[in-house]
Amino acid sequence: MKEKNYNLELIRMISFVLVIAIHVTNYFCRAYGKIPQGEYLFSLALDTAARVSVPCFFMISGALLLGREEPVSKHISRLIRFTIVLVVWSAIYYVWNIGYMKSEYDLKDILEVPVEAHLWYLYAMIPIYIAMPFLQVMCRGMSMKLERFFLIVTTAAALINYGMWLIHQEPYYDFPLIGDRVYAYYLFIGYYIYKYRRHIRISQKTAAIVCILSMAASFGITLAATTVQQDHYEGALTYAAPFIILSAVSFFLFMLRIRGAHFVPGERSRRIIDLFCSCSFGIYLIHILFLDNYKKHMEASDLSAWIAVPTLIIGIGAVSFVCVWGMRKFRVGRKIT
Hints:
The chain is mostly helical. The protein contains twelve helices and no strands. The longest helix is centred in the C-terminal third of the chain and has 31 residues, at 267-297. The protein is globular, with a radius of gyration of 20 Å.
């Protein structure tokens, strides 16, 4: 068995906490004008910083899967697992939303609109897994020069897609290989950075500075646009936004090269990381149940964001972990988390 890369596992563990932070802070950011300015700025700062997390999940998948040689049966098994997870959790959230949250949802829209918004990740990963065996062959067959050229082309395509989105237009044809979304691009750039992490001529200090400055730019653009339109603006926080891409990529590179790109935790730390990472996917799936429950009973203005945001992140993360840990004691629970 191939030795686990704990630089990647560390990124995974941090990222699933940051995903919870995104969903919590979103609730308060979208209450702009209803909460004090200081609370909004605090929530926006955390939201912006946490945006590196979702791209990291795609980049981890690219780092681990692209370029590998796997039997077709492995791909089919992975695809079936994700499809089962999507069906089961869609059913859970459908019952939850209709029965408890009293929201409306038309099942005829299931192929276009997730039952719960955060399930979009599964909608994105399933097509990627369908294409994965072909993408793996492509990556194994490319020279370093061709990989660099492919990186330049896909980066340009991602920026063009975002630019056209800003002006509410789209290409007549989607770009092959990355389509009209940025997720397949993250997959490849994760593979590229992981493969050449020791050879990329960017120092750790530079990577950290680029990450921080990119976050600051995303924060500033969002704040400026929000102030002008007097409503929370999210266009600069989408995962296709250039500064979000730059902050996520530089964060990923920085984390990959911690301890000389060979982070080896102690035995106790290793067990903790392994435990939390084994539950990370399940935590992503289940945590919205607890956040929705808070939203049902509490308005964003009812409790100061300075208190509510960190409390919710820690509390929802802890409760979600306990639930998933318990579920994974059973075979069925492991299959859906």
